[in-house]
Structure formats: C-alpha cells, structure tokens
Amino acid sequence: MRRLKRLRKNAALRDLVAQANLKVSHLVMPYFVREGKQLKQPIQSMPGIFRFSGDRLLKDVEEAKRVGINSIILFGIPKNKDEKAVSAYQEDGVIQKAVALLKKNFGDELVVITDVCLCEYTSHGHCGILKNCRPSSIVHRPSLNAIPDNDATLKVLVKIALSHARAGADIVAPSSMMDGQVGAIRKALDEKGFMETAIMGYSAKFASGFYGPFREAAGSMMKFGDRKSYQMDYRNSDEALREIEADIQEGADIVMVKPALSYLDIIAKAKEKFSVPLAAFNVSGEYAMVKSYSQSQVTSHKSQDIERDLALEILTSIKRAGADIIITYWAKDVAKWLTS
Ligand code: PBG
Ligand code: ZN
C-alpha cells in the first residue's frame, strides 16, 4: 500500500517537502499616514493598525525594519478634500512629506511604495474625477452611480504619481482602475527623468466588500453610489487577465490582484500566464475577519495563536496560488512569527 503520509510524520520531514513558504522579504506592510505630530490613532475595524503622523510613522517603520520588513505601501489621509483631489498632488501633501522623511532616514534600505488614487482626497470618495459629481443632481435618483471621467482622471493620476516620484518614492501604484493609467504615468515619469521609478499596477482590482475597513481607516467611504462602474465584477476572470495584460503592455513592472483570498484562482491564472512579478493584496476585510473571530475567543486564552494560525494559513495559500509579493497588514506580525 502506498503511504502518502509517510512524509508528514514530524515537522522536519514536513519542512523538507514544503512547497510554498512565506518569505519576509516578499511582504509589504501598509501604512495610513495623516497630518499632525505624535499621533498614533487606533482604527476600530482593524485592531493593531493605526493612523500615524509622519514622526510616529518613522518610529513604526524602524520597528518593522528591525524584524526584517523592508517594504511598505503608504495611504494618505489629507486635511482637505474636494471634488478634484487637489490635496493629492501638492508638494507639501501628507504623502509627499512622509515619503521625503522616510527616504531621508532610510534611503535605499527601505522600499517605499505609494498608492496613487483619488478616493482618499475627493469629497465624494470616488477614485476619479466624476462626470456626475454634483450632489444636487442625484437627490432624486438615489440609484444613480458615479461615473468617472477616465481621461480627466488620468491627468490627475499623472500629477499625483509625479509628486510621489519627486518626493522619492521607489514604486508608484495606481489603484483607480482608469484605463491607460499605467501607460500615462510611465510616459510622464520618463519625460520628467524618473526612469528609475517603478510602477506596480493594481491591475485586477475587483469591486469588493472586503475594502470596508480600509475605507473607515482612510475616511474614503463614497458619499453616493459604489465602485462597480470602474472596479471589476467578481463574476469575471477572463477580464482580469485582460486588465493585467494591458498593464504589462503599458509598462507595469509589477502587477497585482486584489483582494487576494476570494481571488486565488485569478492569482493562479495570472501566475501561469504572465512573467512579471505578481503581487496580491490581502485586504482590510480579510484581516478584520480573522481579527474579530480570534478576538472573540479570548476565553480560550488562545486568541493570539488562533490569529497566527489563520493568518499564516491564508498568507501561505496566497503564496501557493502564485503570488510573488504579498501586501498584508500582518507583515510585521508574520516577520515576528517566522523568526520566533
Ligand atoms: C484606493 C485603495 C483602496 C484599497 C487600496 N487602495 C480602497 C478602495 O478601492 O476602495 C483597499 C485596501 C484594503 O482594503 O486593504 N483605491
Ligand atoms: Zn481609489
């Protein structure tokens, strides 16, 4: 009789034949940055994650680096929002200042990725300049969805990406799902001399309920409508591959599938089909789900073990599906878990 479990007998044997292994150098830690000083504000729906002012961000990144996390992605929470997302590309904007500060302190020893989108900076909370933005026009039509003006939005995305590159970002990551965003940004970066600034496309980004906690954290909840008119429909997978292909053709250095957990099939297909580094975003809702279950188990005194086991299972499955890079709110924790 063939005994398939012969190699499962003990940890050393299991380790010998383990195929998918998490690596700390492949993890990216997300950070929310706000204005102000000495601030580290907890985010209710995401226990363990905070909104930092620049000075406190520096300290936390120092901590992350100490456990081996060398890559981060930044999301900005600006003081002011308007219909045109002006605060997203100002030289002294929240992200621009944070990037400059981080680069001054850590230089090449920290990979700084910036999210390039409008939703955190627009008064309506959508990822683009809207064609139908006036709240007065929607009063009598509550079902009316937001339709972004693709090409007007591209111009703003280019300004944002350039301002991040100027501040010193290593990688800019357009996440608005506008057609042509990677190409427009690549062209502008090259023209302005930022040939070395890389682009990570949020290529296959699905309209997902799993972004809920992020929107609370970033204060980017939409004032009306949803994102289904520009983010992808979760019933489709061929379309995801076309989106990824387009980003690669436009010059993306890294492509992404987001969310990760409900989209492992997309990750697997993308890995098979394309040969650029593939990232997966283990999003806020995926984190919050595990947090709330594990925190509900306090009486068993094993709450932290439950969280660790679930997180490692989820993240390893994302790796097994084919992701090269994983963006996860557990990045720092994983680094500690893997070395302890
Ligand atoms: C901005 C952006 C979002 C996320 C990453 N970049 C929110 C959204 O599209 O609504 C979500 C990340 C997460 O949920 O962890 N467009
Ligand atoms: Zn957005």
Strand and helix layout:
Elements: H1 11-17, E1 27-34, E2 40-42, E3 50-53, H2 54-66, E4 71-77, H3 94-106, E5 111-116, H4 150-167, E6 171-174, H5 181-191, E7 198-205, H6 212-218, H7 238-250, E8 254-258, H8 264-273, E9 278-282, H9 284-295, H10 303-321, E10 325-328, H11 331-339
Parallel strand pairs: 1-3, 1-4, 1-10, 4-5, 5-6, 6-7, 7-8, 8-9, 9-10
Antiparallel strand pairs: 2-3
Bound molecules: ligand PBG and zinc ion.
Zinc ion (ZN) binds at residues 117, 119, 127, 175-176.
Short description:
The protein has 340 residues and is an alpha/beta fold. Helices cover 39% and strands 16% of the residues.
Textual characterization of the structure:
- With 340 residues, the protein is α/β, with parallel strands linked by helices.
- It has one domain: TIM Barrel (Alpha-Beta Barrel), CATH 3.20.20.
- 39% of the residues lie in helices and 16% in strands.
- It has eleven helices and ten strands.
- The protein has helices at 11-17, 54-66, 94-106, 150-167, 181-191, 212-218, 238-250, 264-273, 284-295, 303-321, 331-339, and strands at 27-34, 40-42, 50-53, 71-77, 111-116, 171-174, 198-205, 254-258, 278-282, 325-328.
- It has an eight-stranded parallel barrel, surrounded by eight helices.
- Helix 2 packs across helix 3 (94-106), helix 3 packs parallel to helix 4 and helix 9 packs antiparallel against helix 10.
- The radius of gyration is 20 Å and the shape is globular.
- The protein starts with 10 loop residues before the first helix and ends with a helix.
- The mean pLDDT is 94.
- The protein binds ligand PBG and zinc ion (ZN).
- Ligand PBG binds next to helix 6.
- Residues 115, 117, 119, 127, 175, 211, 214-215, 283-284 line the site of ligand PBG.
